[in-house]
From TrEMBL:
Keywords: ATP-binding, Cell membrane, Membrane, Nucleotide-binding, Repeat, Translocase, Transport
Domain ABC transporter: 5-246, 302-535
Cellular component, GO annotation: ATP-binding cassette (ABC) transporter complex
Known function: Probably part of an ABC transporter complex. Responsible for energy coupling to the transport system.
Listed PROSITE patterns: ABC_TRANSPORTER_1, ABC_TRANSPORTER_2
Species for this entry: Lactobacillus hamsteri DSM 5661 = JCM 6256
Protein name per UniProt: ABC superfamily ATP binding cassette transporter
Membrane-topology descriptor: Peripheral membrane protein
Family designation: Belongs to the ABC transporter superfamily.
Phylogenetic classification of the source organism: Bacteria, Bacillati, Bacillota, Bacilli, Lactobacillales
One term of GO molecular function: ATP binding
Localization terms from the record: Cell membrane
Length: 568
C-alpha cells in the first residue's frame, strides 16, 4: 500500500527567511496511522502541517526542494481548494478560523462546503456539540467565547468533516485538564470510526499518549531526529535532549533510580509491571525527601469584595460574588473549567471591563485609577498573543511600554535586551514579528509586560504552546521575580505548573470561586477536582499503582524535589 503522506528529500525555505525551515525531510505516513509530531518551539512542526493542508506553497510562499505528496497529490501542483477535501485542519490559532455568525453555523460550515442536506447537517452538528459540551453555546457568537470554548468549537469543525487526513495543531493548548483528556478520547474515537489518518502536533505529549499513538515523529531545528513508536522513544533520552518533556511518571521512575530498560511497556501507568522492587524503590525515594520551609504571608495587596460581571443582560452571570484577598508576594494559580470566568476576572482586575462589587489595590478603590495607571501596578499578559501585538518588529513591541513612559533609548535598549535574553528571544531581536512561530509570538507578549516590571503580573496561560525548555525558563524567571517580592497570578490548565510553581490556588466553576487553598490540597479533594474539571497528575496514579503509603505525599515529594533553578 502506498503511504497517504510522503515527504521525499523535502526542504522548505520561507521567502522571508535566509535559511530553510525544513531540511531534508523523509517521512511516510500510512492511511489510518496516528502520529504525534513533537519538538521544541520553532522547530518546524506547524510548517510540516502547512504542507499537508496546502497553505505551503499556496499561501506561505517559499522555495521547495524534493517532493511532498498528500494522498498522491504533489503539493506544488495542487490548489488549496483541492487539498481542503483531503486534509482538515484545526489551527493553532483558532481565532482566525471562525467564519460563522454563531457557533452552530461555524461548526456546520465544513459540512455546507460539502453540500449536505439541512436536516442531516443539524443532526451532525448537534451530535458533536453534545459530545464536546457546546450545546448551550450554539447560538453565541464565536468571537465572545472563552479561549477553551473557541478551541472546542474549532475542534468540532474538524470532527464533523470526515476528511481522510485530520491535522490537529495543538488541540489541547487552551483546554482544561478534563476537556483535554476528553478531546484525546474523541480524536481516537473519530479516527477509528472513519479510519482517518491523524496527525497531532502537541507539546503536552503525556496527555496525547493517554490513547494509543502509532509513532512519535520528533522534529528539531527543521530535521526529523526520531521516528519511532512511543514505547521505544520513552526508553531513550531523545525527547528530553530536544527540550520536550517526557511523561511525569517516567521521570519519577528515573528519579527513584529504577532502570527503565527493565520495564517492557512505558506507555501508560496502567501498563507498568506489578513489581514489588519498583514499589520499594519509589517508597524509599519518597521517604528520603524533606519538607521545604513554610512561607511567610505578606500584607494585603488586592482585595475583591462581591465582585462580578455580566457581558449582556440575556446571559447568566459568567462571574459573580467573588471575595478574595491577594497578599504581596503571593504566587497564585487560577484554575478551573473552560468558560468558568477566569479571564473575566483578570479583565476586571485590569480595568478592561466594569465590575459589580468593589476591587481595592493597597486599600484604594481600583475604579479611581486610569487604565494606564493600573497597567503600571498590574501587568496583564493575555491568552492570545495576536490580540496584544501592535508593532512590526520584535524590539519595538517590547520597547513600546517604555517608550510610552519616556524612558531614554539607551536604557530602553538595555532593558529590552535583558528581557529578550530571559525569554529566549535575543537571537531574534532584529526580526519582524510576522516571521515568528506562535509560541515565539507568545513569548514576545510576555517580554513586553515583563520589561515594565509591574508590582503584580497576571498571565493568562503563559506556557500554553511553549516547549518545555522555554516553559522552564519562563517559569523560573517568574519565580525569581516572585522571590524578589513581585506578586504573580497565573491562569493555567497545567496541573503540574500549578503544583510545582504556585503556592496558592483559586479554583473556579460556573462563575464562582469554589476554593482558595494550596495546590496539593485542591488536587486531593475529589469533589473539587470534579467540579473544577481538573485532573490528578500521573504521579498520583503511579503512587496508587504501586500502593504507596501516601499517594499525595508522593506527588508532593516529587514536586519539592524538582530542582527549580535548572532548565533541564
Ligand atoms: N510565515 C512565516 N514566514 C517566515 N518564517 C516563518 C513563518 N512561519 C514560521 N516561520 C519560521 O519557521 C520556524 C518554524 O516555525 P513553526 O511554526 O513551523 O514552528 P513550530 O515547531 O510549530 O513551533 P511552535 O511550537 O512554537 O508553534 C520558526 O522559527 C519561524 O521563524
Ligand atoms: N465578550 C463576551 N460576550 C459574551 N459572553 C462572553 C464574552 N466573553 C466571555 N463570555 C462568556 O463568559 C464566560 C466566561 O468566560 P471566560 O473567558 O472568563 O472563561 P475562562 O474561565 O477564562 O475560560 P477558558 O479556560 O476557556 O479560557 C464564558 O461562558 C464565555 O462564553
Amino acid at each position: 500500500m502506498k503511504p497517504i503522506i510522503q515527504f521525499k528529500n523535502f526542504s522548505f525555505k520561507y521567502d522571508s527567511q535566509a535559511d530553510p525551515t525544513l531540511k531534508n525531510i523523509n517521512l511516510d505516513i500510512n492511511k489510518g496511522e496516528k502520529i504525534l509530531l513533537a519538538g521544541p518551539s520553532g522547530s518546524g512542526k506547524s510548517t510540516i502541517g502547512r504542507c499537508l493542508n496546502g497553505l505551503i506553497p499556496n499561501v506561505d510562499h517559499g522555495d521547495i526542494q524534493g517532493t511532498c505528496l498528500v494522498d498522491g497529490k504533489d503539493i506544488t501542483q495542487t490548489s488549496l481548494f483541492d487539498l481542503s477535501f483531503t486534509t482538515s485542519t484545526i489551527l493553532q490559532d483558532s481565532d482566525s478560523q471562525f467564519i460563522g455568525m454563531t457557533v452552530g453555523e461555524d461548526i456546520a460550515f465544513s459540512l455546507e462546503n460539502d453540500c449536505r442536506d439541512r436536516a442531516d447537517m443539524q443532526k451532525i452538528v448537534a451530535k458533536w456539540a453534545n459530545e464536546l459540551g457546546l450545546t448551550a453555546l450554539l447560538k453565541q457568537s464565536p468571537q465572545t467565547l472563552s479561549g477553551g470554548q473557541k478551541q472546542l468549537v474549532a475542534l468540532a469543525g474538524v470532527l464533523v468533516d470526515e476528511s481522510p487526513i485530520l491535522l490537529f495543531d495543538e488541540p489541547l493548548a487552551n483546554l482544561d485538564p478534563a476537556a483535554g483528556y476528553k478531546t484525546i478520547q474523541l480524536i481516537d474515537k473519530i479516527q477509528k470510526e472513519v479510519d482517518a489518518t491523524v496527525i497531532i502536533i502537541e507539546h503536552r505529549i503525556e496527555e496525547v499518549l493517554a490513547e494509543h499513538v502509532d509513532r512519535i515523529v520528533l522534529v528539531n531545528d527543521g530535521e526529523i531526529i526520531a521516528n519511532e513508536n512511543p514505547n521505544d522513544l520513552l526508553h531513550e533520552d531523545k525527547l528530553e535532549k530536544a527540550g520536550v518533556r517526557s511523561p511525569l511518571y517516567v521521570k519519577a521512575l528515573s528519579k527513584a533510580d529504577i532502570d527503565l530498560a527493565q520495564i517492557s511497556d512505558l506507555t501508560s501507568v496502567s501498563a507498568l509491571p506489578a513489581n514489588p522492587e519498583i514499589a520499594n524503590k519509589l517508597q524509599t525515594w519518597e521517604n528520603t525527601q524533606t519538607d521545604p520551609k513554610p512561607e511567610k504571608e505578606g500584607s494585603v495587596l488586592l482585595e475583591l469584595k462581591d465582585v462580578g460581571h455580566q457581558y449582556n443582560k440575556r446571559q447568566a452571570h459568567p462571574l459573580h460574588d467573588v471575595n478574595l484577598k491577594i497578599n504581596k508576594g503571593d504566587f497564585i494559580s487560577i484554575v478551573g473549567q473552560n468558560g468558568a470566568g477566569k479571564t473575566t476576572l483578570c479583565r476586571i482586575i485590569c480595568g478592561f471591563i466594569s465590575n459589580e462589587g468593589k476591587a481595592e489595590f493597597e486599600g484604594e478603590n481600583l475604579a479611581n485609577f486610569s487604565i494606564k495607571e493600573r497597567a503600571e501596578k498590574i501587568g496583564y499578559v493575555m491568552q492570545d498573543p495576536n490580540q496584544m501585538i501592535s508593532q512590526k518588529m520584535i524590539f519595538d513591541e517590547v520597547a513600546l511600554g517604555l517608550r510610552l513612559r519616556n524612558v531614554n533609548e539607551a536604557e530602553i535598549k538595555d532593558r529590552v535586551y535583558k528581557t529578550l535574553k530571559i525569554c529566549g528571544l535575543y537571537p531574534f531581536r532584529n526580526w519582524p514579528i510576522s516571521a515568528l512561530s506562535f509560541g515565539q509570538k507568545k513569548r514576545v507578549t510576555i517580554a513586553a509586560i515583563l520589561v515594565l516590571e509591574p508590582e503584580m503580573i497576571i498571565l493568562d496561560e503563559p506556557t500554553a504552546g511553549q516547549d518545555w525548555k522555554t516553559y522552564t525558563e519562563i517559569m523560573n524567571f517568574l519565580r525569581d521575580l516572585n522571590e524578589r517580592g513581585k506578586t504573580i497570578m497565573i491562569v493555567t490548565h497545567d496541573m503540574h505548573l500549578m503544583l510545582e510553581y504556585t503556592k496558592r490556588s483559586f479554583a473556579f466553576a460556573n462563575g464562582e470561586l469554589i476554593a482558595d487553598t494550596t495546590p496539593i490540597q485542591l488536587l486531593t479533594d475529589p469533589t473539587l477536582v470534579k467540579k473544577a474539571s481538573l485532573r490528578r497528575t500521573s504521579l498520583f496514579e503511579l503512587a496508587k499503582h504501586y500502593n504507596l503509603d501516601d499517594p499525595n505525599g508522593f506527588v508532593k515529594a516529587y514536586i519539592d524535589s524538582e530542582e527549580p533553578r535548572e532548565a533541564k
